[in-house]
Amino acid sequence: MARPVIALDLDGVLADFRAGWQGVDVIGDPIPGAREFAEALYEFADILIYTARCGEDLNGTKATTLRRNAIRDWLEKHSIPYTDIWTGRGKPTARAYVDDCAVECAPHEAGDGPLGRIETFAKAYSRALKLCGLTTIDRREMANVLRDRLAEVEEREMKEQPADTGGEF
Ligand SMILES: [Mg+2]
Predict the structure, then answer these.
(1) How far is the CA of 17 from the centre of ligand 1 (A)?
(2) E strand or H helix that includes residue 7
(3) Are strands 5-8 and 46-49 parallel, antiparallel or unpaired?
(4) pLDDT per residue as tens, the chain (169 positions)
(5) Which helix (H) or strand (E) is 49 found in, with range?
């Protein structure tokens, strides 16, 4: 059976990115624990390094190759296991994506009931707002707005459903 693929971000997950973008050849120091984390993942999955560093150029251009080489050198210097570095366009196929800017949103995992779904969307909304730099007060207010909107949708869906025919008890 093929090993699953995990797409793993570089900046902010494996490499310290608190200083922000410093250039193609400048990759921050490994975050303590990052190597051990990658090693643990690599025991059961292939690791596809998935980073915006390779996202600005078409696959195969000289600039992309230089960026890819800088990333490869950094990974090898710090003994971080990986299978490949994604330089294609768009989202690669992977079983899981590990990214410091990702917002997890899996409403189907919350079940079919409205409460879990509303809570899931509200949390994702709140996290997205935080990543966009909005204040705590704004986040809370916006999350409430979302919650209210979703509650309205839920109420409308309930009204549109065919009436329960009952059944035998
Ligand atoms: Mg990142």
Answers:
(1) 8
(2) strand 5-8
(3) parallel
(4) 799 999 999 999 999 999 998 888 899 999 999 999 999 999 999 999 999 887 665 555 667 777 889 999 999 999 999 999 998 888 899 999 999 999 999 999 988 777 788 888 888 988 888 898 876 666 677 778 778 888 887 888 788 876 555 555 4
(5) strand 46-49
pTM of the model: 0.78
Each as own residue / partner, the long-range contacts of residues 144-153 (CB below 8 Å, 24 or more positions apart, any chain) are 146/121, 146/122, 147/118, 147/122, 150/114, 150/117, 150/118, 150/121, 150/122, 151/114, 151/118
- Residue 57 Cα to ligand 1 midpoint, Å, equals 18
Cα-to-centroid distance, 102 and ligand 1 (Å): 8
